[in-house]
Design goal:
Protein name: Extracellular solute-binding protein
Structural class: alpha/beta
Helix content: 25-40%
Oligomer: single chain
CATH class of the largest domain: Alpha Beta
Signal peptide: 1-22
Number of strands: 14
Distance between the termini: 100 Å
Organism: Paenibacillus ehimensis
Number of domains: 2
CATH superfamily of the largest domain: Periplasmic binding protein-like II
InterPro entries: SBP, Sperm_putr-bd
Subcellular location: Periplasm
Order of helices and strands: HEHEHEHEHEEEEEHHEHEHEEHHHEH
Largest sheet: 7 strands, mixed
Radius of gyration: 25 Å
Length: 365
């Protein structure tokens, strides 16, 4: 009896010792933690520049033993073309909220299971509510906000001394050959519609589209370059080839300022567009659990703060403000509640096809 009792005590002690070592049920010593279930998996991501930086991608890869393969696009049209081609099955695709409808209608996306995400509770309520109207279909969320920014003018004050307060500066003969503007059909047409005073720059009649086309053809002879990508635009300003530019975001301005240039951001009196870029899940995503894990990581306060610090984009997680400086918050316009009152949401337009056709006609004219 004594030997049997000793054996029982020994078994109980061994079980307690194993539990104290922290091995989950069904896991043996020497096996990895919960993270190891993803080891060796890959995420294919289609993204804008500045959204997949080593500062936050590498820690995720190292923690879970995964690889994040990133492809970049320089414009909305290029982004859509890559996603729609089917040559690569992207797990995650980043796009402005107004484009989500375009992708969803062609079954290029699948819904996000928000029950698998814990950080959605920290999204800025007003921004998230505004965004939801453009990314929810049949009560299913197809996207979540990741970053935001306006599309203002950037003006070199060393070269242009007079005050600038209108998009009409991009049509000013005085600056012929010193004007740069983005090679993007949707944003070009919407900006020009704002200049022409049309009430809704995303729902244009055929007559209004023709007026926009003629206005853009009129501008063409003045333009130094139609650029694609942040770096291309910044280089045009930094080299002095352009003195005024239709930007892809305020960070182009702050980057040039950091380089020592006297460049200012201008939100014209006609208003400027504001994009809220979203993360979406590709229709043929292979690793849904890992995809949701990465999304939750990207919208966390810690990663969002790094995005602001690295790229200066507007933050979508309200808790991230605790991790950034007052200057960083100011540069990202997070301290200016009235800033949004001068901005127009980049929405789904009356016809992407018509807009692309119009823009190609302008460039070919």
């Amino acid at each position: 009896m004594l030997k049997a009792a000793i054996r029982i005590v020994a078994v109980v002690c061994l079980m307690c010792w194993s539990a104290a070592c922290g091995h989950p049920p069904g896991q043996q010593a020497g096996q990895g933690g919960p993270e190891s279930v993803y080891k060796g998996q890959t995420l294919n991501v289609l993204s804008w520049e500045g959204y997949q930086e080593d500062e936050w991608v590498k820690p995720f890869e190292d923690k879970y033993g995964v690889k994040v393969n990133v492809s970049y696009a320089g414009s909305v049209d290029e982004m859509f073309a890559k996603a729609a081609s089917g040559s690569v099955h992207y797990d995650l695709i980043f796009m402005d909220g107004g484009s989500v409808t375009r992708y969803q209608k062609l079954n290029l996306l699948q819904p996000i299971d928000t029950s698998k995400l814990k950080n959605t509770a920290q999204l800025i309520p007003a921004m998230n509510k505004l965004n939801e109207k453009h990314v929810t279909f049949e009560q299913k969320a197809y996207a979540l906000p990741f970053a935001w920014g306006s599309l203002p003018l950037a003006v070199n004050r060393d070269k242009i001394k007079e005050p600038v307060d209108s998009w009409s500066v991009l049509w000013d003969d005085k600056y012929k050959g010193k004007i740069a503007t983005v090679d993007d059909a949707n944003n070009q047409i919407s900006m020009t519609a704002l200049l022409l005073g049309f009430k809704d720059p995303y729902q244009l009649t055929d007559d209004q589209m023709e007026q926009v086309k003629q206005k853009l053809i009129e501008q063409k002879q003045l333009v130094r370059s139609y650029y694609t990508g942040f770096e291309d635009g910044k280089n045009l300003m930094a080299s002095g080839e352009a003195w005024v530019i239709y930007t892809q975001g305020p960070t182009m301005v702050t980057d040039l300022q950091k380089a020592g240039m006297d460049v200012v951001e201008v939100v014209p009196k006609e208003g400027a567009l504001v994009w809220i870029d979203n993360v979406t899940i590709g229709a043929k995503a292979q690793n849904p659990e890992l995809v949701h894990l990465y999304i939750d990581y990207l919208i966390s306060a810690e990663v969002q703060a790094q995005v602001v610090k690295k790229a200066g984009y507007g933050v979508v997680n309200q808790e991230a403000v605790k991790h950034i400086s007052e200057k960083e918050a100011k540069d990202a316009h997070m301290d200016d509640a009235d800033y949004f009152n001068r901005l127009v949401y980049v929405a789904f337009p009356e016809s992407f096809e018509k807009r692309v056709k119009l823009w190609n006609e302008v460039k070919a004219n």
